[in-house]
Amino acid sequence: MVKLLFQVVSKSVPACRFIFDSSAAWCIRRKHQFIPAKYLKSQAEARKEPAIMKLDTPEFHSIFTPELEKLVSIFNKHSYEIRIAGGAVRDLLMGKAPHDLDFATVATPDEMKSMFTTENIRMINNRGEKHGTITARINDKANFEVTTLRIDISTDGRHAEVQFTTDWKLDANRRDLTINAMFLGLDGTVYDYFYGYEDLQKRRVRFVGDAVQRIQEDYLRMLRYFRFYGRIAEHPDAHDGPTLEAMRQNASGLDRISGERIWAELSKILEGNFGGELMAKMLSLGMGPHMGFPKDSNVDEFMRIWNQSKNIKLKPPSLIAALVSSIDEVTELYGRLKFSALERDLCYFIVEHRGAPEAVNRLRPYQLLELHSRFKPNVAHDFVIELLKYKNDLELLKEFEPWRCPKFPVNGIILRENGVPGGPSMGMAMSKLKAYWADHDFKATAEDIIKQIPRILDEMGVDPSAEPQKKPSPKKSRKS
């Protein structure tokens, strides 16, 4: 395919270049920039006047720290417009104080670097520069990420080749959801090109423009749709039919997305509102196998666990354990999603012990699980708590939660001194002696336990007198 290289130079926009796909046939010059015609044609329907309201709320005023005011004054001094972008605007419109502030500007990265250098502002973390992001550290106290307005010239479903622009609407058009495509001026003016404010009022999650196009630009946007649905929507299943169909048709695109990115979104979905219903919906759209889940995932069991645990909040690894039927399937899922080792071990633990047999003393099997665990005591305790939540045994959970396993009164040295051989025999004897200790309500003394050693060794068929002696380590020869 033929590609053309354009060089654009103007007083307001420094020299920049971008690759232009000849299949677009022609391009349009706009504000000293060449924009591919096919990109302009693909824009979503926009309102004529994007400035829709003036925000004047306590949450809005609370963001103005001395550091932010200094950042804004620098941009104003150098005549570059800067606005708050994305999620912070959405949160402020919902009456929430945003956790993070992202900024967009007409200034290019080179212009920002020159400006910050002139103003003696330190810049850190230059990894985002190729995508137009400069991070300024103000007063050696706060970091601000400021990104140049841009459009995605080409995408492969994961990454985009970008061109900088000075057109706010073009930047909004490339974003995923209408509720994330709004800007907020530092004077409180809300700029909404694609009716995101109306969608927010109706608690509706909608892609900007054509859903298929937005999804194919970055397939992770399907998961972002469900994550924001859980944050915005008031009902678990009020999705738009064509949007669901667009995701069904593009489910296999998740094969291109790394497991780490998928799990980062999926775990937030499961922790949010309607997490179970949204997970079931994704599976019904055929997304499961492309995220690493078995083709025959046990959705009924998953929904049973989800519905019974709504008031006790299971962790995401515990929830996905309901979808798999074996340890091997957990291993395959871990290989795809790359969640943490602790999350993997919790999933293993749930799958291995969710069918644990009951006993006369109902608490004892769970005490023994913690006692014999290879994990640190606090981790093992948390795992057992999660298992009891999974089994929805709230009465037993209340009894187990405050319990702490006492320290076992003997160790390997004491056992060796009392005739227990080393190696596998030591581990087996230790396990049996711990079981004896537990059967006596963890109150047996070291003396009581030591008295059990001959009986334990006899049951094991181990003759302590037959323990092989360790061979002495060979002496190192001295160099002459």
TrEMBL record:
PANTHER family given in the database record: CCA TRNA NUCLEOTIDYLTRANSFERASE 1, MITOCHONDRIAL (PTHR46173:SF1)
Highest taxon of the lineage: Eukaryota
SUPFAM superfamilies, alphabetized: Nucleotidyltransferase, Poly A polymerase C-terminal region-like
Keyword presence, RNA-binding: yes
Family classification: Belongs to the tRNA nucleotidyltransferase/poly(A) polymerase family.
Record-annotated Poly A polymerase head domain positions: 83-206
tRNA processing listed as a keyword: yes
Example of a GO cellular component annotation carried by this entry: mitochondrion
Molecular function GO labels: metal ion binding; nucleotide binding; nucleotidyltransferase activity; tRNA binding
Organism: Bemisia tabaci
Protein name: Uncharacterized protein
Domain tRNA nucleotidyltransferase/poly(A) polymerase RNA and SrmB- binding: 243-287
Any one of the GO BP annotations: mitochondrial tRNA 3'-end processing
Keywords, ordered alphabetically: Magnesium, Metal-binding, Nucleotide-binding, Nucleotidyltransferase, RNA-binding, Transferase, tRNA processing
The protein's required cofactors: Mg(2+)
Disordered as annotated region, ranges: 460-480
